[in-house]
Design goal:
The chain is built from five helices and no strands. It is mainly α. The protein has one domain. Helix 1 crosses helix 3. The longest helix is centred in the middle third of the chain and has 20 residues, at 37-56.
């Protein structure tokens, strides 16, 4: 069984709120299994919507496109129009934690530099 499925199983087990269940809070699960609150939320949501199969299996999203872009120039022009529209809205990024916190939380992703 892949590690991803095992982690999802632990999330489901620890969040069990039935009588006798551990009833862990999101934050406790996040800290114990090094996952985000969004991951916990998504696992529980997929379990509710699709049972164990929905929570464990990664399914392809059914993307339906209205049309194909005829050429690279059209694609580039449409992408630039989308970028311009997005930038005029001046959407701000809501960072979940500081750089210092990220270095601690995501320590395994940062390269180790030795002097």
């Amino acid at each position: 069984m892949p590690a991803r499925q095992i982690r999802r199983a632990y999330i489901l087990l620890k969040s069990d709120s039935n009588e006798g269940g551990p009833k862990w809070k999101y934050q406790a699960i996040c800290e114990a299994y090094d996952v985000s609150q969004l991951t916990v939320y998504n696992v529980l949501k997929k379990y509710i919507e699709g049972g164990l199969e929905g929570a464990f299996l990664r399914k392809k999203q059914d993307q339906v496109y209205e049309r194909r872009t005829p050429d690279e120039q059209t694609l580039s022009r449409e992408a630039q129009a989308w970028v311009n529209a997005r930038n005029t809205k001046v959407v701000k990024v809501d960072w979940r934690f500081s750089t210092a916190d990220a270095r601690i939380k995501l320590k395994r992703l940062y390269p180790k530099i030795h002097d």
